[in-house]
Amino acid sequence: MSNHTSAKRRSRRIRILAGFLRYGLPISVLVLALIVGKVTGSGRAAVAALGAGCLILGLYELLAYLLKWKHFYCAYQNAYYQDMTPDKID
Q1: Contact 85, 32 (CB under 8 A)
Q2: How many domains does the chain have?
Q3: Does 71 map to a domain?
Q4: How many beta carbons lie within 10 A of that of residue 60, not counting itself?
Q5: In this structure, is residue 62 part of a structural domain?
Q6: Segments forming the whole domain that contains residue 74
Q7: What angle is formed at CA 66 by the lines to CA 7 and CA 73, rounded to 5 degrees?
Q8: DSSP for 23-89?
Q9: pTM of the entire structure?
Q10: What per-residue confidence (pLDDT) applies to 28?
């Protein structure tokens, strides 16, 4: 396997993680809150699950920012309609 192929795979993996961070995780938190609400039959449990999910998502993003994870920066490039450039992030 050449370095170019390895770098291309790594770049693709970072872009997939960035897309999941940007779109998949917030949707997952909402779906989890809906499931908790249905299972327990309580609106309070659904709101608590939504709050806990948002808190965990926020802590994850803070950690990603502090550790300069590339998929985090690519997710925000995507949010600002820029090309994702995982290989050009410091």
Answers
A1: no
A2: 1
A3: yes
A4: 14
A5: yes
A6: 3-79
A7: 45
A8: IIHHHHHHHHHHHHHHHH--HHHHHHHHHHHHHHHHHHHHHHHHTT-HHHHHHHHHHTT----GGG-
A9: 0.74
A10: 94
Q: For the chain, first and last CA: distance in Å?
A: 26
- What's the burial of 19, exposed, middle or buried (CB within 10 Å: 0-12/13-18/19+)? middle
The two tokens of residue 62 are: 């803070």
Residue 32, pLDDT > 90, answer yes
* pLDDT at residue 68, rounded to an integer: 84
Asked if residue 36 belongs to a domain, the reply is yes
- Higher pLDDT pick, 9 / 2: 9
More confident residue, 49 or 18: 49
